[in-house]
């Protein structure tokens, strides 16, 4: 059997995979498949490791909801003292329902609607990470109309070259849609400082995702620190925060995870010199390795000289293999005889519906359970109803107990928003 290096939080007991103290077969029996399964213990461990690494400087950890916005996970993190980073009105709503106060939330995103800006101001968010002069001016107008105070942070594109597994997850290089070009940032800072009702409280960057080297963070932090000096020299004295974003890498295969202590050693001295509070916005780092997708093999098939395992999960549950060509380790939950070279595909009517291609792995039979590892980030949040498939259940495991924290959708859920008798209008 190809066990590899087992993800922490998921171990084998007498050959069978367990999530903490619960056999995955027990979860499949109770919750059905496909289902996402998360380890509460590993989530706590990852949060505390990063929080502890940054202890030398005043700091705040704002978990990025776009990685995994399950309310059960949000409540778990909030209970640890974590704060939230959201990029839509829907995520703001989720964060508030999970217990986050307005001043514990950062609202980012390159294309916030006016409705979302109003919602953020009414919620009293800690700050809006703004990405253009036009957005700053829109916030100023809405603040004047509503009489609400607006705290803003400038998301700057530091134009730092990074190495990442896919070009879609680079966001801090020259020419990307994200952020204010660094050459324009001082001008936008002056605009923000000139608007009644708007207070410039921070400078922000986000370089991308799955970054395993500290040098881009160091270079980006130095550019933000230099911008901080220029902003202060312009007479703006309201800066309180330096936000270095997220993007710390995790291991899917043979990647080198970025050690929080190494990250801290690179950026903390730079932040300390500014006298500002450090903010980080991790997502994948906290939840990526803490989840797996549990799926059952429906059929085996031989076609065109290839072997297929057809599972009940596919691109509608985990889009990353198809969209990013991402690798996720796959193992049989219970021991099986031998290994094979096969494609693990799903039931969706698309040739791009697969979880693994030409993979040498455990050779499962119909009915066997498979664990698709490291699916805690960008799994359920990217799931879809394509082919009118129901989105799966989510299960949280904590020690020797587990709970379904998101019920599997029903067929009625799929059509609940559709109108049987349209209200036709001229």
Structural features, described:
By secondary structure, the chain is α/β, with parallel strands linked by helices. The protein has two domains: 10-39 and 288-415, Beta Barrel (Lyase, Ornithine Decarboxylase, Chain A, domain 1); 108-282, TIM Barrel (Alpha-Beta Barrel). Helix content is 29%, strand content 26%. The chain is built from twelve helices and 21 strands. The strands form three sheets. Strands 4, 14, 15, 16, 17, 18, 19, 20 and 21 form a nine-stranded mixed beta sheet that branches. Strands 5-6-7-8-9-11-12-13 form an eight-stranded parallel barrel, surrounded by eight helices. Helix 3 links the parallel strand 5 (59-64) and strand 6 (83-86). Helix 5 (114-123) crosses helix 6 (133-146) and helix 8 (215-233) packs parallel to helix 9 (260-274). The protein is globular, with a radius of gyration of 23 Å.
Classification by helices and strands? alpha/beta
* N→C terminal distance: 66 Å
Tally of DSSP β-strands = 21
Overall pLDDT confidence: 94
In CATH, the architecture of the largest domain is: Alpha-Beta Barrel
Task: Report the major sheet.
Answer: 9 strands, mixed
Low-confidence stretches: 1-6, 164-172
- In the CATH scheme, what's the topology name of the largest domain? TIM Barrel
According to CATH, the homologous superfamily of the largest domain is Alanine racemase
Shape: globular
Strand content: 25-35%
CATH class wording of the largest domain: Alpha Beta
Question: What multimeric state do the chains show?
Answer: single chain
Task: Tell me roughly what share of residues is in helical segments.
Answer: 25-40%
**CA radius of gyration:** 23 Å
Number of helices: 12
What is the count of structural domains?
2
